[in-house]
Amino acid sequence: MPQQLPTISLPATFKVQAVTLYYIFRKCINKENKAMLNTSIEPEEWALPLYLKMDEYFHKSGECGEWFDASTNSKVRYLSATFLKAQKALLEDEPREMIGINKASFLPILVYSGFAEKFAFLRRWLEDESITELFTITTHINGKKEFTLSVNEEEFDRNIKAGLPINPLITTPLAPPRPKAVVELRVDLPIKPVCFFGRADMLYKLAQFFSNPHPRGKTLLLSGVGGMGKTSVMQEFLHDERCQHFFNRIVCMVIDHNLPFAFISSTARALNIYDRIMLMPNEETQLRGIVSEMSRLGGENLFVIDNVNETDIHDLREMRYYFDQTGWRFLITSRTIPDGFLFEEVTELDLKDAKLLFTYHFRPDKVDKNDQRRTIQNLNSIINDAEFNSNLEKLLLHIVSHTLLTELLAKYSLKRRFTVNQIYQSLLEKDYIHPDFSSEVDPGVHGMGKKILSPLRLHTYILGLFDTDYLFKKTGDSSTDSENEMRAIMLLFFSMLPSTDIPINDLVTLFGIERSDQVDFEIRLDELRQMGWLQSKYLWGERPDQMDLRYKMHMLVQKVVDEKLSDPLIKGTPLVDNIAGILGKHIADPERFHAYVDSIFRWYEKRIG
């Protein structure tokens, strides 16, 4: 008797998450071959045999519709293509990706899997966002990835088919989870980036490097040109469970210059040996003391140094000797790669992720701050518009998906109410004015040439996004003129300060803001952030339960301010006066303010020699 397909309430075409689609295929494949359990299965190994088994199972039933009307090759290709879509999503750590399904073609697969009657129930348990702990994607040492349930799979299948609830807390696990590292120390750990798309391969490489029991080295540089997202990658990695579960201790520091002093000071504070270390007679003795203390600490430990720039490279080469003696692992972000250092280069985003980044800032009304998954779905609903997608793709290809420029262009377009095509046309006009904007090719470390965005073109594009003329035009309205002058001074001050995250309380002190004016000051800061001049984030404060709002001006934007604002030497005087007054008083953390002073002095040295 031919097997009849059941009547299931599904539309003719619909979408299902990759994790569910993969699970259905997994059951079909494993029905005949229990050994085929991981995503390394190649379709040619199973697609034709599976089709033949299904063909025999259904015995060419007239109820199967177009599935059996199609040719064998067509059906085998459908099996292969559909499975590969689901597999690709899992390999890219996107198990929630929605994949289009044709009911007539999919139904025989669903029936053969044994879950046809309980398909809705299966989807509920695999796709419900509240129980994502039910499944994991495990990466093996050879790079292969395997889909596993965190509960006993046979029990899971039985309960699904019986319509019973699944409780991961009371079911038998397939295997004991990898023991988590005992968290003993977390110092100055930045919070997880609010907006982060893609880079799964980069996070995987970092996890592989730092968890390798026999590493080629213990220090790794995250390198890349300015504005590419090195710091964001570092911050995302620090919150990745592969990092959090591996390291007992994580200490982070951001520097502006003077790497040895910053390392000594930050480490001494983190390990509660500051007073003892600072009483030592010289830098060499202090470094030996720090190394001795760090090397005594067992377990897996990570030290993160953000923002090593060109002026620190000589110090970095010399400090490497001390880093190696500590037994710790080091992750360092830097635009420059000294000889002999292992590194991973942070390059431009994939086009798909760059589209998400642009749309995130271009359509903030579509952002759900409490649900990343829903945010991505909302953004993709915008991107899927054919005209929007076409124009956005042209724009991103033109700017080579440069991360910071993508964000700035989106904010600029939102503020000016430009369409994507209008902003693209404005860049083409700049190209016409500057015929020296030839396409550049970066030979790369291994000679693999690729198109890059030249520093001149990048600077010119960013320069055109920021209008400062209105700040100096007198309107006749004293209130407006005063407000514009305050904004200009704030921009100048930020260009003189380190390009690091500065606590808002420090900014209030540095800018000499009276308590009665603090609300207006904070409003101006947020307005400058919305315009793209500043970036903001929350970081842990001095107390473990306290988070501070911090602002910074990116180095690339600081160059714009340098070029745009007139008479900077005169206008910078109030900041110097404020600093002098601060240093004349007793302050809780003088070293932090010394770093601000050093940055200001270096700013003046560049201009007056």
Automatic annotation (TrEMBL):
Family matches, as SUPFAM superfamilies: P-loop containing nucleoside triphosphate hydrolases (SSF52540)
Gene3D superfamilies to which the protein is assigned, alphabetical: P-loop containing nucleotide triphosphate hydrolases (3.40.50.300)
Signal peptide from the UniProt entry: none
Gene Ontology MF annotations: ADP binding
InterPro entries per record: AAA_16, P-loop_NTPase
Superkingdom field: Bacteria
Span of domain Orc1-like AAA ATPase: 196-278
Protein name: NB-ARC domain-containing protein
Organism placement in taxonomy: Bacteria, Pseudomonadati, Bacteroidota, Sphingobacteriia, Sphingobacteriales
